[in-house]
Design brief:
The protein is mainly α. It has a single domain, classed as Ferritin, core subunit, four-helix bundle (Ferritin, Up-down Bundle). Helices cover 74% and strands 0% of the residues. It starts with 7 loop residues before the first helix and ends with a helix.
Length: 213
């Protein structure tokens, strides 16, 4: 059997397909949603809007995660690290699908600015990869550390009775911790000032805007 070698144009089309799937598609999770067997809670309109705003932030965060990982994988110098990044992206697809499903259940929608978030995150991921695999993996460690912290914040801010959203975020948080530890073990270095601070500021901007848009 002849195996076709992908041309640069083929790889570009594949990346565009991934971007469209993350931004506007209906990603399929490989795992059942943690909320699947939990009954929908009674919430008033304000509570539902608040829960939806938080889950929209988390959905946008997963769009950014897809872009970051794909951008890093595209320019990773080590083949094993590239495969590790792509595997992590595949696991993040579960999170993306779960958040999209939860938004639908809350009668809401993803962020209107997801194309912008994706493009910016892909560029950041590619730039991190250009700095070398230790820096790129260190970027994963810091990103996942900050995501873990904001998930903990959202778990406190969710309406008390919204156990479906809480179950999704708890599982996502456990996965993010695992991804950070895997990147650290692969040689990810601690990022120096001011990168972590700039990452935090950019995430705050994203969260503020995505909550509403």
């Amino acid at each position: 059997m002849n195996v076709r070698t992908l041309s640069p144009f083929d790889r570009l089309l594949a990346r565009c397909e991934r971007a469209l799937e993350a931004i506007a598609g209906s990603p399929q999770a490989s795992r059942l949603s943690p909320a699947a067997n939990i009954a929908e809670a009674e919430m008033d309109d304000a509570e539902r809007r608040h829960a939806a705003g938080l889950m929209r932030i988390n959905h946008t965060g997963e769009v950014c995660a897809q872009a970051l990982y794909f951008g890093q994988a595209a320019l990773a110098r080590d083949v094993d690290n590239r495969q590790h990044l792509l595997q992590a992206a595949a696991e993040e697809t579960d999170h993306l699908a779960w958040c999209a499903q939860r938004l639908q259940q809350l009668d809401s929608r993803p962020s209107l600015l997801n194309p912008l978030w994706y493009a910016g995150s892909y560029a950041i991921g590619a730039a991190a990869a250009l700095a070398g695999d230790p820096v790129s993996l260190g970027f994963v460690v810091e990103t996942e550390r900050q995501v873990e912290a904001h998930l903990a914040e959202h778990l406190e801010k969710l309406p008390t009775q919204d156990e479906r959203s809480r179950a999704v975020l708890n599982t996502m948080q456990a996965d993010e911790i695992r991804h950070a530890e895997a990147a650290r073990q692969r040689g990810g270095i601690e990022l120096s000032f001011p990168l972590p601070q700039l990452m935090h500021i950019s995430s705050m901007v994203m969260k503020t805007v995505a909550y509403r848009l």
